[in-house]
Design a protein that fits this description.
The chain is mainly beta. It has one helix and 13 strands, in the order αβββββββββββββ. Strand 4 and strand 5 form a beta hairpin. The radius of gyration is 19 Å and the shape is globular. The termini are far apart.
Length: 170
């Protein structure tokens, strides 16, 4: 097989072999893949993180409802509810064999800390100004989250409160 065809075959197999299509993940990886629900009608309005010396699981609130908990069971849960018009715009975290901790910062200059920022650090933020956190994905094992990634997009447009303009004839 010629070199370009061999490289294309290897690239195709690598892409089919794991969830690399999802984007950048932080941490050593391995385990079962997870992803929060794609919701095009509701913003992330809160976050729950379960901890026990490491990050066990995450759960996002979409609008007024909590999505499915993603990750391992157990741990003590910490919860944060975002204010109206508040969005997560930056995430800092640390991992060893498992995710150790997270710090999430918002457009309203608030930061929320979960676990310990101890180990190998990472910082995740959107590629375009104005984008916000819209999803979380990663991999987890029996003890907790082994890798994590973040999906960014523009916030939903706020509905206008102005009445529609009625055309006049005449």
């Amino acid at each position: 097989m010629r070199q370009p065809e061999a490289m294309l075959l290897l690239l195709t197999l690598a892409l089919l072999g794991g969830p690399t299509w999802a984007g950048k993940m932080y941490g050593p990886g391995g385990g079962k893949y997870f992803s929060t629900t794609e919701d095009y009608e509701h913003e992330i309005t809160g976050l729950r993180v379960s901890l026990a010396l490491l990050v066990k699981s995450v759960q996002v609130r979409l609008g007024d409802s909590w999505d499915v908990k993603q990750g391992a069971s157990g741990g003590q849960t910490q919860e944060v509810i975002l204010q109206q018009g508040e969005y997560i715009i930056n995430v800092v975290g640390a991992f060893k064999v498992f995710l150790q901790g997270l710090a999430l910062c918002t457009n309203k200059d608030r930061c929320f800390y979960f676990g310990n920022l101890d180990g190998n650090f990472f910082s995740a933020y959107p590629s375009q100004e104005g984008q916000v956190l819209v999803g979380i994905y990663g991999e987890y094992g029996l003890l907790g989250i082994k890798s994590i990634g973040f999906e960014w997009n523009y916030p939903l447009e706020e509905p206008t409160t102005e009445p529609p303009v009625t055309p006049t004839c005449g």
